[in-house]
């Protein structure tokens, strides 16, 4: 029965991230809405799929009314692929993972030393060509550790070895860097606001740097990590060592650094930027209950992930927040600190993890029915 009934008439805002591997953020919102309405027919529900700058960021922007634009770009291994960015009223949302994300590598295939961000630069150029005056550059979920050198090369920079030849693509190639010529960089960046919307605030190199922390998820062995760390430190000694310790420099394999040092970008936590871009504050004004969530509610969630950002913003306005997730790895106290009253995990309904992934949609509807019973009846 009711344990936290919200003031009537109830109006629910579903502002959840994707369940990576099973449901997009749009699907999460649809399933939650369906489950809620089975218990409370006609319930007012607003869907605002959210993202934190990592993969799914363009999809969230498009779901809130941005126009989806497609471009042919270079993938992390040099292949051609179709990537999208989002555009509305002179603001572009560009997601580096669309061009250079891990999802573009075949299962089990990695390219830790050679994967390039060239396609991310091509995406930025397409946004400029379309007339963007503000670019929200969502970074994270990358397959790359090249310090953004590929991106800068696509935008007109030249990275040469001692004999004047371009260095090979990828972070490994930066060991051979002798000269960086940024004079040909696209001049339009001087007049455009470029906001680095990052899911992490790591520095470029060192024990908390991009290679050490995120290299392994891109297939880097300990030896590769050492090579990449040295290569990126060398790259920064050529381009500008001061920016290497700025928050966000280590995002997306150091692409954050490239954007900060050469494109005049400013760093902001991804979820904060995205909540602004998506019009979250306005949607919140109309809500009496917020439902947030993501695939795995865990320690990472507390460090600036979408549900933590949503909950903080909603609690600041005294609005009750509950969460849905695939798996829950946080105790109730930690949820409470994050402003989340209760979390509903699919694994609490279906203990078999494989079934939980395969039947995520119907299970999420059942979780939402429980939320409706607990908070809306
Ligand atoms: N239907 C599901 N049932 C159970 N667990 C799920 C389900 N869907 C996703 N997960 C879990 O969530 C994990 C993905 O977590 P999540 O969606 O929070 O993304 P993430 O890896 O934290 O990345 P990001 O930073 O992009 O959000 C999966 O690896 C899996 O363990
Ligand atoms: O892409 C990456 O390296 C991680 O998502 C951190 O930004």
UniProtKB/TrEMBL annotation:
Belongs to the glycerate kinase type-1 family. Its EC number is 2.7.1.31. The keyword Transferase applies. Gene3D superfamilies: Glycerate kinase, domain 1 (3.40.50.10350), Glycerate kinase, domain 2 (3.90.1510.10). The keyword Kinase applies. This is Glycerate kinase. Keywords: Kinase, Transferase. One of its GO terms (molecular function) is glycerate kinase activity. The lineage of its organism: Bacteria, Bacillati, Actinomycetota, Actinomycetes, Kitasatosporales. It holds the Pfam family Gly_kinase.
């Amino acid at each position: 029965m009711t344990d936290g009934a919200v003031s009537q008439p109830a109006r629910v805002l579903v502002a959840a991230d994707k369940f990576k591997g099973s449901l997009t953020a749009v699907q999460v919102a649809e399933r939650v809405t369906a489950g809620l309405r089975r218990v409370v027919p006609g319930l007012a529900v607003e869907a605002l799929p959210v993202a934190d700058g990592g993969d799914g960021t363009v999809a969230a922007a498009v779901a809130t009314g941005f126009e989806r634009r497609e471009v042919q770009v270079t993938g992390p291994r040099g292949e051609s692929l179709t990537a999208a960015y989002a555009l509305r009223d002179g603001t572009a949302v560009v997601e580096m993972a669309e061009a250079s994300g891990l999802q573009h590598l075949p299962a089990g295939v990695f390219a830790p030393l050679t994967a390039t961000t060239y396609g991310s630069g091509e995406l930025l150029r397409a946004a400029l060509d379309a007339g963007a005056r503000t670019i929200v550059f969502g970074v994270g979920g990358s397959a790359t550790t090249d310090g953004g050198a590929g991106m800068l090369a696509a935008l007109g920079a030249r990275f040469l070895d001692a004999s004047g030849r371009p260095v090979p693509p990828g972070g490994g190639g930066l060991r051979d860097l002798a000269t960086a010529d940024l004079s040909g960089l696209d001049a339009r960046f001087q007049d455009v606001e470029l906001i680095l919307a990052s899911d992490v605030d790591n520095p470029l190199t060192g024990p908390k740097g991009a290679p050490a922390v995120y290299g392994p998820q891109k297939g880097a062995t300990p030896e590769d990590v050492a090579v990449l760390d040295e290569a990126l430190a060398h790259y920064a000694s050529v381009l500008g060592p001061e920016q290497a310790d700025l928050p966000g420099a280590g995002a997306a394999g150091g692409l954050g650094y490239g954007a900060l040092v050469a494109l005049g970008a400013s760093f902001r936590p991804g979820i904060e930027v995205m909540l602004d871009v998506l019009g979250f504050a306005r949607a919140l004004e109309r809500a009496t209950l917020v439902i947030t969530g993501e695939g795995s509610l865990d320690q990472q969630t507390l460090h600036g992930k979408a549900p933590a950002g949503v909950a903080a913003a909603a609690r600041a306005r005294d609005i009750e927040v509950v969460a849905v997730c695939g798996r829950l790895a946080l105790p109730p106290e930690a949820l409470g600190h994050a402003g989340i009253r209760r979390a509903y995990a699919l694994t609490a309904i279906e203990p078999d993890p494989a079934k939980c992934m395969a039947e995520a949609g119907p299970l999420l509807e059942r979780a939402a029915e429980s939320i409706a019973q607990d908070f809306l009846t």
